[in-house]
Structures are given as C-alpha cells and as structure tokens.
Amino acid sequence: MSEHTLHFKPAEGFRARSKAVVDNPFLRQSFRGAMDFLMSKRAAQFPDPEELESLRNLGEAIRQYNLAKLPDLLERLEANLTRNGIKVHWAETPDEANAIILGIIQGHGATRMVKGKSMVSEEIELNHAAEAAGIEALESDMGEYIVQLANEKPSHIIMPAIHKTKEEIARLFHEKVPGVDYTDNVDALIQIGRNVLRRKFQEAEIGLSGVNFAVAETGTLCLVENEGNGRMCTTAPAVHIAITGIEKIVEKLEHVPPLLSLLTRSATGQNISTYFNMISSPRKPGEKDGPEEVHLVLLDNGRSQAYADEQLRKTLQCIRCGACMNHCPVYTRIGGHAYGTTYPGPIGKIVSPHMLGLDATAGLTTASSLCGACGEVCPVKIPIPDLLIRLRSEAFSAPHANPAMRGQGAGHSSLISAIWRGWALVYRSPALYRAVSWLGSRFGWLMPSRQGAWTTVREPLRPAPKRLRDQLKERNKA
Amino acid sequence: MTIAQTPPGKPADVYFFATCVVDQFYPDAGMDAITLLEREGIRVHFPEDQTCCGQPAYTSGFHDEARQVAAHQLTLFPEDWPIVVPSGSCAGMMKHHYPTLFAADPVRKAQAEKLSARVWEFTRFLVDVLDFKPQDCGSDCTVVLHTSCSARREMGVHVSGRQLLGGLAQVTVAQQDHESECCGFGGTFSVKQPEISGAMVEDKVKSLKATGAERVVSADCGCLMNILGHAAWKDAQEGRPPTLPGEHIATFLLRRTGGAK
Amino acid sequence: MSARDRILARLNRSAPQQPPALPDVGSWYATHRSSETPADKARRFRHYIELAHAEVHAVSRNNWADTLHQVLKARGIDRLLVAEGTPHGDTALDALPPRGIECSVYDMAIEAWKSEMFTATPASLTAARAAIAETGTLILWPNEKEPRLMSLVPPVHIVLLDASNIYNTFFEAMTAEAWNNGLPTNALLVSGPSKTADIQQTLAYGAHGPKELIVLLLGEKA
C-alpha cells in the first residue's frame, strides 16, 4: 500500500503544478484526446436540444425540490433505512467519518476492506486512516485500483486514471503485481486486475461503497457502475458500509430515473450504466447472500455551510457526472492533479472551498476564464460561473463579521483592493476617465514592452493614439 | 441565460456604448460600427460620459466597485432608444448581470432592468433588428470567425456573426477545430493564470491558423487583443512577418460592403 | 448534542419555509417518451442491449432449454448454476443433466461455498423480472431462491426474459409496479456484461462481473 501520506495539496502550488502539465506536450495531447472523446460521447447521447433542455430543467427542479426539503428528507431517510435494518451514522467532519468507519471495522475484528468507487471516501482520505489503523483498504474500481497501485489520487471523478497511458499501466502492473509480465494489451491488463481483485472480494470482511442517490421514501441506496465491483463490494463481504454526502438525497423513487439518465449520458455518454444497484436492506432471514450488516455514513464536511446561503446552495445540486471537467478548457490543459483537491475541475472549484475553507482554496477560484462551458453542460444547471464569481468576491473582499463561509477574506490584499478602488474612481468619474484615457492615448508609446504576465506569450498592449471619442469629434467637426 | 430578444422595429436613433476596450484600444472598430449603423439610416448617439460596463471588477469579485461603475452607466441613456454594444461580453454584462448587481437596490434594479431590455450586441442588432443583408463588393477571401464565450452563451452572437459573414458572396468562412472553446482571455484570468491562459491562446491560434484563413474576424475586442497579441508575439519570436491578421467584424463588414459611401 | 442534531439544526436554520412544487416527472415522460407496441419494445430492447455487447436469442416456451443447451455447448461449458424451485430453474434441472450439463443449485448460504462460487462456477441461469426498452435493460430482483451473487460472479450469465414484460422506460416500470410501496433487499438493473474503459478509454469487457451476458428472449414464437 501507499508509502507516504497523500494529503490535499495547498492551492499555493497550483500555478507550478499547472505549468508542469502545460509544458508537457505529451500530457497536453493526451488530456485533449481524452476530453474530446468524452465530449463527443456525451453529444451523441443528446441529439435533440429540446429534449436535453427540458430534461435539464427537470433535473434542476428535482434537485432544488429535494434540497429545499433536505433536513426533513434526511430524517425520513434515516427512519426508513433504520426500519429496513440499515444502520445510519452522522459525521460532521472527515475525522468523525473515519472514526465511525474504523469503529465498525474494528468492532468486527476485521482487517480487509474492498472499496467500490467513492469520491466521498477520497474526500475523507479513508485509505490513509485505514492504513494507519492496520486495515487493508483496497480500491476495486479498475481506475481507482490503478491510481492506488501508483500511490496517486484520482485525477477525474469518473475516470480516475485518465492521466495514465496503457504503457504506464503496463509498467505499473509489471512492477507492482507479483508474477505479472509486461503487457500493454488492455484486455490482458483488465484480466490481471480482475484476477487479483476477485480473490480480494472473496476474502474481504468489509465492503465499502459510495451512494449516487439515497431515496428517502423507500430507504434505498442507489449505486451506478459499469464494472460490477460495486456490486461485489456491496454483496460479497459480511459488512457493507456506504458513505455519502448529506446532499445526495431524493424524496421519491420516481426522482431517480431522470437523474440517472442525466448522469450516465452526461458522464460517459452511455444511455445507462451497466449496473444500477438499489440496496434497501441487509440480508434477510432465508436469503443466502448479501451482507449481514449494512451501514450508511452521512457526511456534512462543509455542505451545511453551502446550504445556508441561497446562492451557494446550488453547489449541492451536483450529481457528480464530471461533464463540467470534460468540457472545461482549463481542466483539459492541466488535468486533475494540478488542482490538489479531491474534486478537480469546475465542480471542484465551487465545492472544495466549503470542505477545505477559502484559506486553502482562494487561488483556485481564479483558475477560470468564466467561459461558461461548465454551466452549459451541467445536467442539473448549476450556474458554475456565477458561483465562481461569488466565491471570488468572498475570497478577495476584506474579512468581515458573519461571513457566509470559512476563510472569507483569505485572499484579501490591501494593495489589490486599493487598485480596484482606484479603478472604480476613474471609471465612475467621466472627467477623470477622459483625462486618464487621454494620457493613455498620448503617451501609449511609453507603455513598457514588458507588461508582466500578459507579455509572457503576447505582444504588449498599447492604447491607440486617437480614442474613439476623439475620432468621432474630429469627424463630426469635418 | 436568455438569448431570445424581441426586436423592435427599425429605430431612427440608437445609443452607442463603445466599451472601454474599443474606446482606448480598438477605436477603428467603434468608428466602423457607427458608420455601418449610420449607413443604414440610423442616427447614432455617443454619450460622452460613458466609460466601462464594470465587468472587469465584477468578474474579479469586486462587486462594490463594479456597482459604482455600472451605476454611472445607468444614468447615460435617458431616451428609450436601443443601446448598441460592439462587444458581446460587455453587452452580456449589461444585459444579464446588471439586474443581479443591483438586486439589493430597488430603484437602480428597476433602472437596470429597463436598460438591460434595450441592450443589443452589435451583430445581433444588425441581423435581428435591421435585417442587414450585406452586399459583398470584395474579391474572394477566406476568413475564420471567433466568437467570445459570453457573446456565444449569453448573446447568441455565433449565430448572427455566421449569418452576416455567410451573406457575403465572395467570402468563405473557414471552420476551426474546437470552435466554441475559449481563447483563454477571461479578463484578469489572463494575468492571474498566465500559464493556463497562455496554453489556451496558443491552442486557439494554432487551430485558427490551421484553417488557412487569411484573417480572423471577431465581434469581441477582448478576444482579439489576446489572439492577435499571441499570434504577433509568436511570429516575432520566430522572426517572421505577421501570419494571422484580424479585425472586428464591423471593420470587415464595412470594407466588404463598400465603406462609408 | 450529537453530530446528527448539529447537522440537522444547521440545515433547519436555513431550509426554505416554502419548498418549490413537486416536480412533475410523469408529465415529462408522457411528453417525451412514447408508448410502443410489444413488438417495437422487444426490438428496441434487443437493439440497445446488443449495442452493450449482450447476446440475445429469441426463444419459445417449448425450445428455450434447447437454446440454453446450445449456448453452453458452444462455449464448452458443462456446469450451470440454477435456481431450484423456480420454474426456469427446474426446467433446466430436468433438461440439461441428461445432455451432459451438470446443474448446481444455490441451496446454502454463500459463506459455505464462496470459494466454489468464485472459482468453479462458469455459468448461471436466472430469470429477469422485467426489462426496459429505452435503454436495453434487464430488471432483476434477486430473492431467496435466486440470490444476488448468481447474476454477478459466474463469468457467463444467462437470463431468461419474457418479452411480454418489457416496459418502455425505467419510470414506467417503477410506477406500473408501484416500487415505492416497497423494494426488495436488492433490486438491479443490468444493461450488458461487466465492462470498463478505465485504461486509456479503451472498452474492455469482464472487468469484475460476467464477461458475457446472454439473454433468452421468450416470445410467442421463435
């Protein structure tokens, strides 16, 4: 297992990390190819713009309806899960969630856990906590298994190993999996993973999974997957522990089909995933398989902070499809690791500040040209660019009382604020603006040829010798 | 984001909101846009006190500063005439973000809403309001059209731009790969994240040049500053004459249709 | 105060007084999805599940066991896990052993034979409760007789589906059968063999679950 800690990286290193990727033509080409592929797959699933738009409207309405009733629905979910025999746990922080999960595992004297894909388990760094407690936490999603073998973190929420080529994976398997010869045949590589992991599915006492939708009215946990490892983790071991954020809840079962359709079509361009697994209870008397115990851990970790603000609450509409990253020109240039957060890309930039505080993430909010591609493809219509602008405002304004979020004002700089105040002074005072722009036009040739970051790849900016207003005046005189 | 806008009949008068970038950096684009409108028989009014829509501060998160500057613009257009803006992103700011910016100020919010309803992006105004049909007098040429992201997503400018260029008989409009992808400008983004912005504009210029088009045309001067600035820098780096000239679509249209007349 | 109480208290402080209207999912489906004839639903189902790499055989009530036998023979499989006490399981138990296919049954809890299930069970036969035409999806509700791992662990999974049980959409299936009144321990949608594209976006089948999914589509005539 991993030799060293894999904690979140602070946002300060973001520019250096993105530069490293941007300067690597091979990686640039590989991310571009992968994102082009995912974009075309999604586009093929939505040939009718009217249908897409109406389904997105429905998805947005469902998510907003359920978020509006969130506290009630959580209580109903808990009551119905409990009635069904599933034990419900609540955690405010990653540490609490880890303690709950490790407590369950240790209560069974267990040491082996297989994990289905769960971004929330990445968010709490469960593998690290398990390892420290002497528990094997083995990822079983092929992509997650690969990044775990490489001692890395997922670089994409749907395709964890999207940054790796098959040759790299071939070398990795050859080096890390005992008795494996080098092969870069993808079928053979998958077969290797299958053989290793099927042994683990038999042996593990604990299976861990995420949750895509938790249905309050029936007390049901829904999981979306293609590989079958999620079903393995939730069926073969004696204990199943599911973990999810408190926002992934719907009141009614009938809310699931539209969200599922939006999710798989937006994420990987599939009309449906291979498996959709709905779990409503542990093994009942007379049943011959399935876990004897099922637990659900509900994690807050900053979600209730986003919830408290009407605009920021929209962040919680997310169904984790990853389409925003697939369509993001920034993600396409730098990949997922550069962000240094569990959730990369546009959704990562709006959700991470609530989990980690703006102190750690203020810089990330600037890593967007606000082009709007993310908001345009979001299946539940999260206005990601507007939320980024809001977060910038929270990050760079002077610290004040009763802030909407942790770390408000963390990016505040008196100098930058003074510059903007000066800018506002000029642009709200026509006389001043006329004077400053006139000076610019007369002495534009004096502008330095090096203009900071702008001229690293561009010619310097020089105001035109005659402003539009001057040209107009001259023309009207003539 | 709404793209639909009910066109009024052809007005006798319009306001022209040039934007700070056009006033200071691309005045020819502004002059050509005004000339085109006048050639269509419209009186164009240029309020002398106009400055900037406030977008740079708004998108950087400095909303008080953006509000102060935007509030000033609210006072400049007393008559009920359309306000034509030769930049999709600034038009988008005035149309879609002004009402939000003044959400807490009922008086200004009402003013902002009235103003927003009158804001027209230049190419949309030509197509939707004037039903402008350009008569091409130029010789054969191939151009490539770049539409800014906010112009595309907030104002639908990719459609009107393509329609205008498509109406020019001797002009072929080339198709670049990843047409809808951002050029990497993004206002302060270009200097806050120069590595990523640089990579984006590098890729954008490559795909524009790969079309073989002799020039790039855009309705947004922010993008032009970025794209042309990088193309010229790259040419200078490699010691060759400029390979990707470009201009505002107003300039191109005016020249192709016989100038001021 | 517990973590639960603190989380709920925070949410309750900010929850809107008036939630928005309940979204009308039904009318979306009524507007955007048509109701097809049984034959069209069967065709659509088949089209999509075949696109997802499943193999489909049209069979009749009289001959499906023959087809099952041929499917196994063609793969050199001589051992099939079946659900004793179900009509289809019992049919297989009657029909296959005389033709040289050994039938094992899931008659004890998995703990007693996990290793055998994982290493010595090349194929299984289960029924599907119903199917969905829109996405080419099988609906499985595993139960005491036909437990969950039957459709997951064996590398070849054969499913008997009655063509008259195909719904237009997932939404139609769950509302027609009133799933909201109670779901089983595990309800499943299966839309092809196990697969992954986690290595360089290259599709590979048989990631963890069945490498092959074979549907015996039971119609009036075949």
Low-confidence stretches of chain C: none
* Assembly state (oligomeric): heterotrimer
- How far is the first residue's CA from the last residue's CA of chain C? 65 Å
> What does the main sheet of chain A amount to?
6 strands, parallel
Tell me the CATH superfamily of chain C. NagB/RpiA/CoA transferase-like
What structural category do the secondary elements of chain C indicate?
Answer: alpha/beta
**Largest interface: pair, residues per side:** A-C, 95 and 78 residues
Percentage of β-strand residues of chain A = 5-15%
Number of domains of chain A: 2
Which percent band covers the strand fraction of chain C? 15-25%
Order of strands in the sheet with most strands of chain C: 1-12-7-4
Mean pLDDT of chain A: 95
Instruction: Characterize the biggest β-sheet of chain C.
Output: 4 strands, parallel
Main CATH class of chain C: Alpha Beta
Number-wise, the strands of chain A total 10
- Class by SSE composition of chain A: alpha/beta
Explain this structure.
The complex is a heterotrimer of chains A (478), B (261) and C (222). Chain A has 478 residues and is of the alpha/beta class. Helices cover 49% and strands 10% of the residues of chain A. Chain A is built from 22 helices and ten strands. In chain A, helix 16 packs parallel to helix 19. The radius of gyration of chain A is 25 Å and the shape is globular. Residues 1-6 of chain A have low confidence and may be disordered. Chain B is α/β, with parallel strands linked by helices and 261 residues long. Chain B has two domains: 13-129; 141-256, Rossmann fold. In chain B, the strands form two sheets. Chain B has a four-stranded parallel sheet, with helices on both faces. A four-stranded parallel sheet of chain B has the order 6-5-7-8, sandwiched between helices. Chain C has a four-stranded parallel sheet with strand order 1-12-7-4, sandwiched between helices. Chain C has a four-stranded mixed sheet with strand order 8-5-6-9. A two-stranded parallel ribbon of chain C has the order 2-3. Chain C starts with a helix and ends with a strand. Classes of the chains: A alpha/beta (478), B alpha/beta (261), C alpha/beta (222). At the A-C interface, helix 2, helix 3, helix 4, helix 8 and helix 10 of A face helix 1, helix 2, helix 6, helix 7 and strand 9 of C.
